[in-house]
Amino acid sequence: MFFVRKCCWLLLLFTLVSCGGMMDDLNPSGSNNRTAAQPGTTGPAVGQNAPDFTLSDTLGNSVTLSSVFPTVQGVVIYFTMWCPICDTHMSNMQSSQIPSFPNVRFYAVDYVSATVADARNAEISNGYDGSGFTILADTHQTVLDLYQATMGSTIVIDRTGVVRMNEDYKDGSRLQTVLSNLP
Question: What is the rounded CA–CA span in Å between residue 82 and residue 142?
């Protein structure tokens, strides 16, 4: 037993020693070390032109991002997989942001359903039919990849097609601030 315990301690010590620079992770600087986006380029980063896409909504209509801009102040794209966390985020947006920003279009991108019909069933069963969100079916995860997104990623695009926010949804305060400051 002593030998096993000693081996476990040695393994733990080896693991900690091999994580050089780990102390920096325990006290992060808070600075953003990502390279700055180049204005005028296309990509998912804040300051870049939003990648265009066309997806089907759950009613079978094609939605092309670039065709939406002339009619709205901005667009919010939220990536959902219909989990309880996504439901909390979407419920918060539905009660707080959607009513406050009638000139902003809100899309929830379902990237887990295999078909448009499956996305429609998820929309209805989760209570989002007629909610203020347009649910888009990203059945091949094309838009998920374009925006380097994951569950809870929230993208804000202004009326000129420039990405103004690309981050995980938290409590809605950051989204509220970005939407309030759209040109």
Answer: 18
Q: By the 8 A CB rule, do 48 and 41 touch?
A: yes
CA distances from 154 to 19, 51, 109, 145 (A): 32, 15, 10, 14
Look at phi and psi of residue 23 and say left if phi exceeds 0, alpha if psi is from -120 to 50, else beta: alpha
For 111, the token pair is 């990237």
- Pairwise CA distance, residues 126 & 78, whole Å: 15
- Check whether 18 has a pLDDT greater than 90: no
Complete domains list, the chain, with CATH: 43-180 (3.40.30.10)
76 touches 105 (CB < 8 A): yes
Q: What is the pTM of this model?
A: 0.81
The rounded distance, in Å, linking the Cα atoms of 136 and 134 is 6
